[in-house]
Design a protein that fits this description.
Cytochrome Bc1 Complex, Chain D, domain 2, mainly alpha, 121 residues, 0% strand
Length: 121
């Protein structure tokens, strides 16, 4: 004898809504559901200055003196903690790196740090 599980349309809709929905906190960072991918966050927040290759050769990147993320010497010299802090708190020493602490949570920034490390040439 086989056992069949039958869901009413109402139960199916409720379960589907719970599984698909992604909530965010006041900063816009995910609080439940799957985390945003580093690639997507980079495309949303970083690419306009740092470019798709991390070399910062965009018009906005040149104007703001954005860091060349592919620079091997810089990659070797900088710690993950410093990259993390730069993303969270911004940097205004060389140019105008905005803070993202109101838009990204710590887990998302950690994934961006790993993503930035991939640009090393």
């Amino acid at each position: 004898m086989s056992l069949k599980l039958v869901l009413s349309p109402f139960v199916f809709i409720v379960l589907s809504t719970l599984c698909i929905g992604v909530n965010s906190d006041a900063r816009g960072a995910n609080t439940t559901g799957p985390p945003r991918t580093a690639s997507r966050m980079y495309g949303q927040y970083c690419i306009s200055c740092h470019g798709s290759d991390g070399r910062s050769q965009t018009k906005k990147g040149k104007y703001n003196h954005a860091r060349d993320l592919s620079d091997a010497k810089w990659q070797d010299d900088v710690s993950d903690e410093r990259i993390f802090n730069s993303i969270m708190n911004g940097r205004n020493i060389r140019g105008n790196m905005p803070a993202f602490k109101d838009k990204l949570n710590e887990q998302e920034v950690e994934s961006l740090v790993e993503y930035v490390r991939r640009f090393k040439k």
